[in-house]
Amino acid sequence: RLYGGNARGALKIIEEYLESHPNDAPALFVKSRILYELGDRPSSLDARLKALSLKQASTDAAAIADMLIEDGMYAEAETLLKARLDQDDKQFTTRFTLARILLFSSRFIEADREIKKLYKLSADSPIVRADYLEALRLALLGDSENLSKLVDRLKMNKVQHSRLIFFQLLDDFIKGGDTDLFANEIAKLRHEFINHTVYGPLFRSISPEIFLGSENKTKREFYSILGSRLKHPKLSGVPFSEEETLLLRELFNRYQSAEFCEIDEENAGLSGDRVLRANPERKEAVEQSCLVKVGRKFRIAIEKEKMETFVSGILHPNYHPRMIGYAFGLKTAALRLSWASEPNEIPFSLRQVYQNSENSIESIVNIIDNLFLRVLSDWHTRNSHRRAIYLFKGLSRFTSLLKDRLEGMQLNSNIEEEIIQLPDLGIETNNPLFLMKNLISNKSSEKISIPEGIHHGDLNARNIILDNRGMICLIDFYKTSVGFQLLDAARLEVDLRYETLQDGSADEKELRWLDYTLANNFDPSEIEKLDVRYSLMKRVRVSAELRRVSMTVFGLSSGELSVLYSIALLITLIRLLKYGHLTRKVSQLILAEIADLLKVISDA
Questions:
Q1: CA 146 to CA 144: how far, in whole Å?
Q2: Which of 228, 285, 226, 224 is nearest to 254 (CA)?
Q3: Could you give the domains of the chain?
Q4: pLDDT-wise least confident of 149-163, 353-367, 399-413, 445-459
Q5: Residues 251-262: what's their mean pLDDT?
Q6: Confidence of residue 40 (pLDDT cuts 50, 70, 90)
């Protein structure tokens, strides 16, 4: 500033220079800054964009994106950043800014992917910039447990106190800390980093309200001042916590009242979330009932995002609830979903249908056909492709899970032992850890073509709801993602064989024989010919039908099915053991089948 801080004089100098040097990128950036200081944002942005086209600096792209964001042009900022990353995916500041935009747009899954990439780009250090975004992501999701683990890791790394302040502030606040104290401390950080190109925009975007949602201080004071004069819906039927009450008032603020009833665990899945049926009323009329899901914020927020990404507009609307409302607090969130059943109709799950002895085997087979050939077709056929991957190499991450379960059941977890004892069954079997080690060692370099696309991720019988007309509705999309699509059929088979069927008349030897036979025979027609007692026929027919529809939907030969479905069953069984909710006998039956499947895969 040769003119002693006179911005217009400085602008005159730089414009005279640019007349003879129109493509000087640094000079264009100087002009952009001066115009911004003078309040001419459009001209400032034009100058910066022209400079950006002449220079490959990631910081410049991030600075322009921040200017666009300040003008409310989020989509344009995101497009610019992604275009720059397409040219050079190692631009750290550009990716940091993109991840920040995604976080503040509540797109947590996409933000998580970008944060993971930032960690890979980061040098080995006690604290890295990606830690700031990861802490913010966990705080926005109300995940206090993992946020505390992150803070503990930074403390173990002996990070300086001045750099720990932000993380401790978030941790304390999410655990219920004082709102005013948090706001004041963030304001100090905002002032301290006001000119920092990375942390300045980050701290400017943070306020208590983005975490509190329905619980924010202004709303609470508004309620306390108006008291009984404030018109809000009367909530009845079941008790709610203070936080749940605030969320439900927001979801039903246009109604006079809403009566709730709890949907039991059999029909609500096992997510741990609270699922309720609501009957809202206005003065004029009673509206159609709906579902409300209330639970931990990180689960509900992720499920909402997955429904927006993988369900709405992709899966036929007849086969899933439609989102009609979302509210969140500090650690809890609520999702309001449409429900297409009759007002007084009680829904029931496939688990109930399967366990009810009055329902014929054919009726259950028909439900499975309808589920895979119609309901899931938008995922399994229209959004599916074949992809060759190192699937055997990927199995290595399941070895530690398997070892943990063997140790948890006090069984031999020595990976070098070929045989282990299963005392509750009175048998010995091949050691699954030994087989897994050899399989990975021998086949890790092999690629295998799998059907890949959108899949439910937890297609157990509780998450398949039916009404009296036979219509199917899927619920609980928290684990929905793009991946190995045969996992859906495998998950349902494992659930119906090991979690759903309570067959007291079948002894362990009979069940073990059947499990061994199913692990070694994947031809549906051959499976249906098995000579078993009627009490086990349901298992046989369901297993055969799930394999038949898998061949049909994904166009698999019998040889492909035996390998791919074996791997899908293997992954599902190991994951099922991880939860530790099964009896020792059932767990040992699963271990024996895992060994059978590993042998089949190794010999293929």
A1: 6
A2: 285
A3: 7-207 (1.25.40.10), 215-338 (3.30.200), 348-603 (3.90.1200)
A4: 399-413
A5: 88
A6: confident
